[in-house]
Amino acid sequence: MKKNKIIVAIVFIAFVLALLFNESILTKAYPVYKVIGKDKIEESVKNFKTKESKHFIVRYQDSDSKYVSLIIDTAEKHYYGVIKDLGYAPKDKSVIIVYSNPDEMNKDFSLAKGENAMGIYLNGVISIESPALWIPSGQDVTKVFQYEGPVVHEFTHLVVDDIAKGNYPTWFTEGIALLEEYRQDGYEWGKDLSYNGKPYTFDQLENNFDSLDEMLAYKRAFQVTKAISDKFGMETIREMLRDLGSGMSIESSFYKETGLKLDTFVNNVKG
Ligand SMILES: [Zn+2]
Question: What residues does the Peptidase MA-like domain cover (predicted)?
């Protein structure tokens, strides 16, 4: 509790500094706020076992010990690829918690009961469902986990969040996470899905992402983000993340980096 009081004081000081230096309050206070959330999540798995590699810390229970090296190998295999693409390396090792009970994972990561995710990123921590829960028996666990698993996707969310300091629309972090899956593994998300009519507009992605059809919204986020990197290169994605981290809006950042209006660009990306 004492620690929390200190953190509250730090958040307050961050607010004051942000006001004084006229920078975004959100991007100043967010990294501190994130520490509180991270502590809370780590507290809820304090009885889990721990295995560390060069860049990751895996927390798991006995029943998942057989998957730990697969998880570490997959994460380490793609670590340098992701940080090179996004131009940023986390300063601490990244924590990956393996849950064999999806309800527990949803509770610790604030996901509503009944919702389901193979992986979640929140407050600087990655959680993944035990491979035992989603890889059907008889399949090649290593192959399926490396190709379809959540590690690259969630680690990308972690890096994006660190650079942009919480200041990004959901479609952009999902788009970058799906783009990294594509760039790292050639895994193209939602390839066979087709839009019923027109793809979602910029306005829908920006303001209503969570209430859209999830599959189609993710597909559109991927297409749009890939179109930005195809046309302007990963350098522009990197610059946009840095702009967001300094408190700029995504529209201003895109205009600054490309001279184009983001809504027009997005609405013209082929569906
Ligand atoms: Zn995601």
Answer: 144-263
